């Protein structure tokens, strides 16, 4: 039996999308790690910046994190002065989380790291091809 040098699914769109996604995630992690920041912090800061402050439980649900894991991340982010937590005046048992100006600044820096990873990933494509790819992917995800 002749051994093939390509995967049996290499001509399938799902396979190519999956591999591209893995490469994109690897590049984002690499850029974030080299800058000494955590991708998990990005998810929290981006949600707070884009969707506004909220209760810890609400924040965990909207970014898909386990609530107890989120507490650890929020402790880290609060220590870095990127978020602040305060007691909800309507329910003293709840904590409201908000991004700080330092957190906004950090988020912008992390956005730049993601842009650098994207540039590296898409380097083989022309500007026109990048625009076409983005349009096709948006159609697939109904954005």
Rg of Cα set: 19 Å
Helix content: 55-70%
* SS-derived structural category: mainly alpha
Termini separation:
45 Å
- Strands, count: 3
Determine the CATH topology.
Arc Repressor Mutant, subunit A
**CATH first level: which class?**
Mainly Alpha
Throw out a few tags for this protein.
mainly alpha; 6 helices; 143 residues; single chain; 3-stranded antiparallel β-sheet; 12% strand; elongated; Arc Repressor Mutant, subunit A; WH-like_DNA-bd_sf
Structure description:
The chain is mostly helical. It has one domain (13-123): Winged helix-like DNA-binding domain superfamily/Winged helix DNA-binding domain (Arc Repressor Mutant, subunit A), CATH 1.10.10. The chain has helices at 13-34, 39-51, 56-63, 67-79, 101-121, 127-141; strands spanning 54-55, 83-88, 91-99. A 3-stranded antiparallel β-sheet has the order 1-3-2. Helix 1 (13-34) packs across helix 5 and helix 2 crosses helix 5. The N and C termini lie far apart (45 Å). The model has no long low-confidence stretch (mean pLDDT 92).
């Amino acid at each position: 039996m002749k051994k093939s040098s390509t995967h049996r699914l290499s001509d399938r769109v799902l396979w190519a999308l999956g591999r591209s996604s893995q490469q994109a995630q690897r590049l984002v992690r690499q850029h974030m790690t080299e800058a000494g920041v955590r991708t998990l912090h990005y998810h929290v800061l981006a949600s707070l910046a884009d969707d506004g402050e909220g209760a810890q439980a609400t924040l965990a649900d909207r970014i898909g994190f386990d609530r107890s894991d989120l507490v650890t991340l929020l402790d880290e982010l609060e220590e870095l002065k990127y978020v602040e937590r305060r007691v909800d005046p309507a329910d003293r048992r709840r904590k409201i989380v908000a991004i700080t100006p330092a957190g906004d600044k950090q988020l912008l820096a992390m956005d730049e790291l993601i842009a650098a990873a994207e540039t590296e990933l898409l380097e083989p494509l022309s500007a026109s091809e990048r625009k076409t790819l983005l349009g096709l992917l948006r159609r697939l995800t109904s954005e």
